[in-house]
Amino acid sequence: MRPGEEEWKTELRIGKFIRIILLVATGVTVAGGALYLHHFGNSVPHYTVFTPGPPSSRSPAAIILDAASLNFTGIIQLGILLLLSIPIIRVALFTWVFLGRRDWLYSAMSLLVLGILLFSILRN
Fold first, then answer.
1. Which residue range(s) make up the domain with 117?
2. Under 8 Å between Cβ of 57 and 73
3. Which of 9, 23, 32, 94 is most buried by its number of CB atoms within 10 A?
4. Residue 72 covered by a domain
5. pLDDT tens-digit map of 67-119
6. Which DSSP state fits 49?
7. Using alpha carbons only, what angle is made at residue 108 by residues 89 and 120, rounded to the nearest 5 degrees?
8. What global pTM score does this model have?
9. Of 35, 34, 23, nearest to 70 (Cα)?
């Protein structure tokens, strides 16, 4: 094997995996949007009054439960949640790769970035 070929193959595998997640997230979001429009497409929205969703639909666990019960907005939110998780998954996979190669500098930097991403998403 040529130098750098293993790294290139690993990056290709991670890229394919990320593409699959992206396609699934897009499909879930589009399907939820189509179902929502099919059910509520003829209603006229009232833009003068803003009514936020219930607080229970703002956590990832609640979003997953809403999507599992085939709630249209829950399906859309699940697709968006999957889209938002792509950078975290990518950094986590590269952290795993760097740890496996015993590249401590890149492992530490990846763990720092992963910690920042997780902190920014999970904090209230």
1. 11-43+50-122
2. yes
3. 32
4. yes
5. 898 888 889 999 999 998 999 999 999 999 999 889 899 999 999 999 999 88
6. S
7. 50
8. 0.78
9. 35
